[in-house]
TrEMBL record:
Matches recorded under PROSITE patterns: PROKAR_LIPOPROTEIN (PS51257)
Location of the SsuA/THI5-like domain: 68-195
Pfam families, sorted: NMT1
Protein name: ABC transporter substrate-binding protein
PANTHER family per the UniProt record, alphabetical: ALIPHATIC SULFONATES-BINDING PROTEIN-RELATED
Signal peptide extent: 1-20
UniProt source species: Antrihabitans spumae
Amino acid sequence: MRTFTIAAAAVLSAAALVVSGCSSDHSGSATRTNIDTLRIGTIGSGNVLTGPLGFAHSRGALVSALQDQGVENVEIFSFPNGPDLNQALVAGELDVANYGDTPALVARGSGLKTRLLALSAFNNNAGVVAKDPAIQTLKDLAGKKIGVPSGSYIDRYLQGALQEQGIQAELIHLFPADQEAPLNSGEIDAAALPDVNPSASLHAFLAKGFHQVDSVYDNHPNLAGTSASVSSDDFLSSHPDFGATWQQVLVDAEKYAKDHWDDYVNYEIGSSKFPADVVRAAARPETVPTEPFPAAGIALLTGTKQFLVDGGKIRSDFSLDEWLYRPEAAQGS
């Protein structure tokens, strides 16, 4: 059962305003002749890029690498979760979307004509925390309320973990930033949280005294998430060389971050609202790929897609291989 609290509804209303406000003087349609300003959607707040791509942008390396594609500027739009970002993408108000695999797959399975340009991260952790010391395992949450950002990779992990153990619980749609108060008050019994920067909420809650009940890494490694970089068919058709260039930009940014890891983590600390120790704990070089489609990431993505198909979350099944953007195939079509 899904329950939408008043707080969550307010956030969703705010998100709708963000979507409607994506257009700016530098925007235009996805099929515009000249890109000029590249519009990137991401999950978070403050309209900033994070991760290796954000690190590259902070060094001035992003725009310079895209100038041959007619990019003179980059504009970032933040969204509280993937489903809200999808609305802006379907409206043609974004050129590239960087977010979790679950909303990206659901969007494609709902008929949104997109292509997966790359996996920007894989083996993403998530976990469940509680305040009540009597709650030690997922089985202790049978029939209880768990806050979770609906439609996210965290949601997919939680539903998969509960299903594996035959547990039924009431899932309440709450963004991570809205979960602490109802967890303290007892309105919810547990919170399902991301454990990746910039949303290192799992470690942040643990640092505040909540205890871990379950996690991807410790209990369900097969349910790890991936992060997707997606664009629309319209945009890629209008700019046929962009896809290959974007893939190279991502790979270069990822290799640089891994080769300069301490500097990269310091960048993440400076960009985050969380304490330095929390950011460091969530920063893991093994989650950063150095190719667009790492085999381990595709295996996780395949499992997530099948789970969503089996659960009816993907309305129309599709070929994962055909969804992957491969420059040689695109040029031959």
